[in-house]
Predict the structure of Sugar ABC transporter ATP-binding protein.
Amino acid sequence: MEVRGLTKRFPGVVALDDVTFAARAGEVHALVGENGAGKSTLIKVLTGVHHPDQGHLVHQGEPVSFATPLAAQHAGISTIYQEVNLIPLMSVARNLCLGREPRTRFGLIDFGRMHREADRTLREYGVQVDVRRPLRELGVGAQQMVALARAVSVDARVVIMDEPTSSLEPREVETLFGVIRRLRDRGIAVVYVSHRLEELYAVCDTVTVLRDGRVVHTGPLAETDRLTLVSLMLGRPLGEVRAEGVTKFSGAHDTGQEPVLFAEGLTRRHQLHDISLRIRPGEVLGLGGLLGSGRSETAKAIAGALPLGSGRITVAGTALRTGSTPAAIRAGISLLPEDRKAEGIVPGLSVRENIALAALPRLSRFGLVSDTRIDAVVDTFMKRLRIKASGPHQKVGELSGGNQQKVLLARWLAMHPKVLLLDEPTRGIDIGAKAEVQKLIDELAEDGLGVLLISSDVEELIEGSDRVVVLRDGAVVGELSGDDVTEDRLMQAIAAAAEEEAVTHG
């Protein structure tokens, strides 16, 4: 699959400028760049969503033009997106076989055969579930593996993977990498998009770097070291990138003595088991553990979004009514959720409306909202967070992932919180935006805010946290502080808990 001299324009912007790109059979090709570099637009041209203004596509040696995504699928081009694009109310088996269900000789769906085939296919991907269950009952990671299995099982010649590991735990990531290697061995071309550099070096053969809609580098990944790759993506000198290091975190913070937040005995049946933690002003507390360990549930329970069976939460010395989001917000707790698209932004509203959404009661008098006060707040945070948009009235759904994340941060910072709960704050955003968010977290802690940081990026968690509380299966299994806040110690704590559980259930 090739594109030659591809140019794609949208009103006021050139999204792709004379791009040439080739996905070759039996090769895993990394496509990287900052948000807004043109990766998504290129994928949409490859899959028939957009049509080029100049240039052309070549598929299996022949010029092609895909009128629709369905035409691209029929040509053997399959895509796995960061957000699972399946039907949650349908069963797992129906999702896997949708549009190509096995039929009886009377033309009816052969459910027995469909369930057997779905079960066999998913077991190859390490997923063992009742395929008759609705898809929505599965965890996000399992749903992503179903999407992967569906994409690969449609006799694809080109498989495009857009941030496929964003919702997967390490075991599932290894399964995915095994699938990718099998696809490569079968002569299938894989286009792999990810902001996680360690993944690229683990599985990719070739890399193409996009910046501002243009190709700035294509070549063997093994010949391009990590810092050079970052330098190419950011368009900054290699020496400057080398001097700044991997993350933008500055190190330890000066913290107050009395906790600004104290959570004690948080318990919810089958999810949380007697979790206790404290956060002091100016402290970044990391919450470590594998996917499904209870990290997000803990954050949601503190923010009042998840009802508890028992437990007590205190903010700045005042007891908080649990299970009430309004009470948590009034007390000074703000939560940046893991899934910004489903639980955060309102894509059809403007940047201005999204930022002001939570603060409207504070920005109104006698029920009347002051446009002047809203404009002042929005202007302040757009400048402080360096939100890139055509203006405050641009729809937030049109922004890059990193700028959407900044809009969400702006919304909650406009509430002047005492405690900020950050669930995967840099997931799915580019290296430049990631560095800006990390720097902002540092600044917020220095300003005296208490921060809870959840991240699947172990390097980010270790670099950014003053202490780390380790969870497994909804319970606290360890706490790291001082010189013990290292990647090795974190992995040891998780592994020790796993061994203890195995012995207990021996």
